[in-house]
Design brief:
The chain has about 300 residues and is of the alpha/beta class. About 30% of the residues lie in helices and about 30% in strands. The longest helix is centred in the last third of the chain and has 22 residues.
Length: about 300
């Protein structure tokens, strides 16, 4: 696969939820993407960027070797790859807030589990390096059985007594008579960049794209709040506003002693927050989504 070195390249998972969420993130950053559903690449019309759709396990290699300057993948994939190399090949530049899952030890539901029970047993997993590190840190000698898929079937088939697998809801484990019992690694999707030398113009474009992506991430939970309040309530209201920097306070015309308060809150704003603001003296409270934000 050849690449146009005058353009920035980002490797993303070729199919599945992580692929869709990665493309949504880039579209949220203002990129207009071309390319069919089953294409191996897609081109941005309005930014010098090409997407390369590859297997998730291959993304660290594409980025680490410098074929792609950037990549979006799960921390679980990145960590498993990193444990197979003597030196780092990529740098994580942003946690993206989606694709959250956990690598967990799972045991048969009827087993009263403790970590010591793993000693001498066979454990099936698609992440042998991370599982090996987990066992080594606890001084446990066990046999690791590497599988590429259907790990949860291993106990039923007599391949292994325990498994170490990714868990999001736990429904698949439960359907196979297993229960998640111990956490090995917590993961979410991250944006990574290569540690290989990058041409100055591409590095500049990568920084510009990262700025846009950080702006998209910042707006995911951020809200713009506007309210009115008397002067003696301003200190308490500023304390209640979740994750807000110093709010903007402007005197209200025709209402002496009253002020309009405006703030960007970078944490979730729940009904309980609005109730606390009202109890503190706020009125005419508006909560609005933020479409774009430049940090």
């Amino acid at each position: 696969m050849t690449t146009d070195r005058s353009r920035l390249h980002i490797a993303v998972q070729k199919s599945g939820r992580l692929s869709d969420q990665s493309k949504d993130l880039l579209k949220g950053a203002g990129l207009k993407l071309q390319g069919g559903k089953n294409a191996l690449t897609a081109r941005a019309e309005n930014f010098p960027l090409d997407l390369m759709f590859v297997r998730d396990d291959d993304i660290p290699t594409f980025v680490g070797d410098g074929v792609c300057e950037l990549g979006i993948c799960g921390q679980n994939v990145l960590e498993e790859d990193a444990l197979g190399h003597d030196a780092p090949r990529t740098e994580t530049v942003a946690a993206l807030g989606f694709g959250r899952c956990t690598l967990k030890i799972a045991a048969p539901e009827n087993v009263a589990y403790s970590t010591g029970l793993l000693a001498g047993e066979r454990i099936a997993t698609s992440y042998p390096r991370m599982l090996g590190r987990f066992l080594a840190e606890r001084g446990i000698a066990a046999e690791i059985v590497t599988m590429k898929g259907a790990v949860e079937l291993a106990p039923r088939l007599g391949i292994a007594k325990f498994v170490c697998d990714l868990v999001s809801t736990g429904a698949t484990l439960e359907a196979n008579g297993l229960a998640a019992v111990e956490t090995v690694f917590a993961s979410e999707a991250v944006l990574v960049r290569t540690l290989k030398p990058v041409a100055p113009d591409l590095a500049e474009r990568a920084t510009a794209l990262l700025t846009r992506i950080n702006g998209v991430i910042a707006t995911q939970e951020s809200k713009y709040i506007v309210l009115n309040a008397p002067k003696d309530a301003l200190i308490e209201i500023a304390r209640i506003l979740p994750g807000a920097d110093a709010p903007t306070v402007v005197p209200l015309s025709g209402r002496p002693g009253y002020y309009a308060v405006q703030a960007v809150c970078q944490e979730s704003v729940f009904w309980e927050t609005l109730e606390k603001l009202k109890a503190a003296g706020a009125s005419a409270i508006l909560v609005m989504p933020i479409e774009k934000m430049m940090l």
